[in-house]
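Comment thread on ticket #2218

A.B. wrote:
> Attaching the input chain for the structure job we discussed in standup.
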Amino acid sequence: MMGQATRPTACIETDELEDLIAEILQGDTGALSSFYQCTVARVSEEARAFTASWDDANEIVRGVYEQAWRRLPSYDPASGSVLTWLCGIARQLASQRLQRRAVVAPIDEGNRTRS
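C.D. wrote:
> Ran it. Output below, let me know if you need it in another format.
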């Protein structure tokens, strides 16, 4: 399965994504490219659902793939599909981002009233 970066994204199934993970872990850069191309649209949709802008969503997507890259060796198909796993990371990062903003907003508002 090496070098299948030209695979159409519409035909990627869970089993194929799991195969791509195995190929990535073996050092296949084509598989890494295919994995990203096959999943980024869905991950972007998930991130955008939780954010106010595409810029925020893009930051979350970047974070998803950074975390996925680090966690890839521990991905467990028994825990859910690859897309479920990636979207879960997106939701977690979006939630963290919203929590940080909620903490910062009252501090900013408090500083404005004291001036």
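A.B. wrote:
> Thanks. Noting for the ticket: The helical segments are 14-25, 29-49, 54-71, 82-114.
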